[in-house]
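User: I'm preparing a small set of examples for a lab meeting where we compare how different chains pack in three dimensions. I only have the primary sequence for this one, and I'd like the structure in token form so I can line it up with the others. Please keep the answer compact; I'll paste it straight into my notes.
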Amino acid sequence: MAGPTLSTHGRLAAYVAQRLLNVPSARLHQVLSALSGTSAVKIYVDDYPDIVTVLDEARRLADDPHRPTGSLLSRAGLDQVVVIAHRTGWSLVGSSAGPVFVLPDWSALALRIDHDQEWAGEIGSIVERLVEAAGSPPVP
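Assistant: Understood. Below is the structure token output for the 140-residue chain.
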């Protein structure tokens, strides 16, 4: 089964993931500040029903042993693991150090969701499941 094509959101996902990988988690705030407003914006999950759908699909992707090739990738960074999940219409970039972004086709920006306290536990659980499903190496 073929994986999703690398659309604009896929390229932005790769860019965000690369930025997260290249710094220690203690300095992530610098990367997040650089992304804010130009490439990323904080949102609240409940304000965007499509994001709730993305999180449901991401959970199912993590649990799917027959997921499409290329739909789930991960890399170990300096002291964190970054995972990228792709499905038709969206990408999700999550770091084991915390930042999580959804990149939907309908937005030119990465939507940061990890700060949403009502969803923090669920978002963290989904990222953990995605990291595990991707067969990520342990964090250095």
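A couple of notes for your slides: Residues 1-6 have pLDDT under 50 and may be disordered. The beta strands are 40-42, 72-76, 81-87, 90-95, 100-104, 110-112.

User: Perfect, thanks.
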